[in-house]
Design a protein that fits this description.
Elements: E1 3-6, E2 11-14, H1 24-31, H2 34-54, H3 59-62, H4 64-86, H5 89-113, H6 116-143, H7 150-159, H8 161-175, H9 183-187, H10 192-204, H11 207-226, E3 235-238, E4 241-244, H12 249-257, H13 260-290, H14 296-321, H15 326-346, H16 351-363, H17 366-376, H18 384-393, H19 397-412, H20 420-442
Antiparallel strand pairs: 1-2, 3-4
Amino acid sequence: MQAVRNKAHGFKQLSDGYLSKTPPFQFMLVSLIFPLWGAAASLNDILITQFKTVFTLNDAATAFVQSAFYGGYFLIAIPASLIIKKNSYKFAIMTGLIFYIVGCGLFFPASRIATYSMFLVAIFAIAIGLSFLETASDTYSSMLGPKKHANARLNFSQTLVPLGDMAGIILGKYLIFGHVGNLAEKMATMHGAERIAYGEQMLQYTLQPYKYILAILVVMLIIFAITPMPSAKATISNAGGEVEEKPSLKDTLKYLWGNRNYKKGIAAQFFYVGMQTTVWSFTIRLALNLNHSITDSAASTYMIYSYLAWFVGKVIANFLMNKFSITKVLTWYSLLGTIALIGAFTIPNMIAVYMAILTSFFFGPEWPTIYAHTLDTVEEKQFTETAGAVLVMAIIGGAIIPAVQGVVSDLSGSMQFSFIVPTICYVIVTWYFYSEHRRELRA
């Protein structure tokens, strides 16, 4: 295999895009991007609860927060991959950070205009930035070193996402929810101008977490701008030496459409992201519905427990996947997660909330494993950038499935019963890992 040595960092750039060894600083810098999108995603769970009360929304309408968020991912993933192909992973990451900064900045005018649609615009702008970040960082993390450790690298980077999720929830708990007990209960007694004025006052608190996030984003942008990063792209040899191989979008999509196992992974990612998003979007609401005496802030603590469970689940799964078949470990994780979700929509007391939290433990390694496993089915590595982008587009499940759960909740009149929607999704994900394990045994 052809290789180009980078004297400054001691690694070789291999022709398939991987490196001969992992540059530690650059890899850690890319990994630190991962908790940044975790913080944005978890703050959505806080915003859904607040917006429902302030704007008097039903459950289906609150799901538009996730629709704007994950819809942005879907629309921008392919353009992001084209930018990566034309420029570099580093350029795409910096572009994502800039859009993320702009989106956070839009919360300032949104809080003054005080309309639901303006907040959705700000969330959509953040999602554009995150689509660039995930499209670039997921694939880039897996490419920054030897091919045989690609899954391990991505799982390590993804292990940092729950830390960002926990940080986002903590910021929301104390900076947004910390100024009032149960917002719905308090505003239920208000009418007319008094209710509008108080709602606008509550919306001002949404600014607080984004001030801290903005500062971190600016620092990260500066560090990325001054740090040399490896190309990590597939190359071909010609008379002029090694050059990047850049197939057309049409040729790439034609190749991917003919790859059955790749399409199977896309479907699994769609249902997984949809399931994860619905559980996290409505856990706070589930707690408030089952226990009318707790405050919004206290209910948000359950999401901290969820993200902590997610983190622990990732760490344990990483250990198990180093000793046993990855697909076998994830089959068991998915099966047990499905059982936990059955408890979440059938047990008529607060134990259901703890079952939802337990489900997060089994979410642990599933997104990065589906991602890396599916990317491995792309044997022609010149198609990697676009293949990774299409995988990120599967995040659209996070826009569609929560909306379905919101409709089920409104039609059935039961927030708890609506958890049957992510349960069905988890059954599909369990089947995916089981079928992949059987395919692995036959190979």
